[in-house]
Amino acid sequence: MAAEGSNSIDALGQFQLHTSLGLLGDSVHFTQSNLMMVVAGLLVLLFLYMGMKPRAMVPGRLQAAAEMGYETILSMCTETIGGHEGRKFFPFVFTLFFFILFGNLLGVFPLFFTFTSHIMVTLALSLLVFVLVTVVGLKEHGLHWFSYFVPQGIPKALAPLMVAIEFISYLSRIISLSVRLFANMMAGHVMLEVFGSFIVMLGGLGLLGYFPAALSLGVNTLLIGFELLVATLQAYVFAILTCIYLHDAVHLH
Amino acid sequence: MDVASAKMLGAGIAMIALAGVGIGMGTIFGSLVTSVARNPASRDRVFGLAILGFALTEAVALYALVIAFIILFV
User: Max alpha carbon distance in chain A (Å)?
Assistant: First the structure.
């Protein structure tokens, strides 16, 4: 929101956390971010329940959407991770995808809050993936898993350097996975905020400002559409990268 | 030079990263056009890959944006 009487744009103020649910929320520090996570979880359940209830031969819109989500993620898992293991990890990837997707999409609606625009949330999600991948790799291959860090067919002299590089790139997955989602969601909302502030500021100029104000309103409308694309795309990217990492853990390269 | 103006300059300089992102996106969609022109039947499959590449490249631009925000506001 543009600060009253000043021309500065408070782009990051919208990400401020405050407690919700009154006194009860105050006492346990239950913020609006947590509330939105609960809402997203319930919405996923509601979506799948309502989508699967008709069990019609010719699916309606909701059933078609639910089936499409299921089939997309299932084929992503079986194609990327591999047939048998893909089915094993399918519930995890499916949950992750729909939780992030609904979290991203909630932010487009007014009065809602995007919990994925906080690095703490995305970092926790990517740490979950990282720990799972490491545990799966160690469980499948035992100590042989460490050969993952030694690329095949390199000269002996280069090996220490390559191991160090591979190890760093393995660790940097945590950061790249979390920052990608967080930055996309945050940048989108900052852009909406900036153009929203333009409308208010230019509208205040009087007749001269009306045309550019209408222009930035149009830009904002386009940005909302772009946000819908980015929200879906980033949830998809998070899910498919999780699949690729799981493939690496299961098959070692 | 005082700290405030140095911060402004730093945030601007951080955005040089966008040059690389522009090259990357041009390569992705240029290759998409080339491959679809050569084999129009592969359009659906190649388009999905291009969108994935687009999302990964766009993330680099957003890393730069986050760094600029950190310089400006933190």
Answer: 73
Residues facing B59 on adjacent strands: none
- State pLDDT tens for residues A165-186: 888 888 888 988 898 899 889 8
> What is the per-residue pLDDT across B7-34, written as a single tens digit (0 to 9) for each?
999 999 999 999 999 999 999 999 999 9
Predicted TM-score (pTM) of the model is 0.84
CA distances from A85 to A71, A72, A125, A219 (A): 16, 16, 21, 45
Shortest CA gap A58–chain B (Å):
25
Mutate to test the interface with B, among A191, A232, A237, A244 (most CBs of B within 10 A): A237
How many angstroms separate the CA of residue A139 from the nearest CA in chain B? 30
Chain A residues in contact with B69 (beta carbon < 8 A): 12, 190
Contact at CB, B65 and A12, closer than 8 angstroms: no
The single-letter code of the amino acid at A162 is: M
What CATH architecture is B3-73? Up-down Bundle (1.20)
Which residues of chain A have a CB within 8 Å of the CB of B62?
179-180, 183-184, 187
The tens digit of pLDDT for each residue in A32-84 reads: 888 889 999 999 999 999 888 888 788 888 899 999 999 999 998 998 888 88
3 state SS of A19: strand
Q: Which of A17, A58, A59 is nearest to A34 (CA)?
A: A17
Q: How confident is the model at residue A1 (pLDDT cuts 50, 70, 90)?
A: very low
CB A251 within 8 A of CB A82: yes
The contacts of residue A6 (CB under 8 Å, 6+ apart) are: none
3-state secondary structure of A87: helix
Q: Which residue of A has its CA nearest to B48?
A: A233
CA distance B12 to chain A (A): 16
3-state secondary structure of A2: strand
Cβ of residue A186 closer than 8 Å to a chain B Cβ: yes
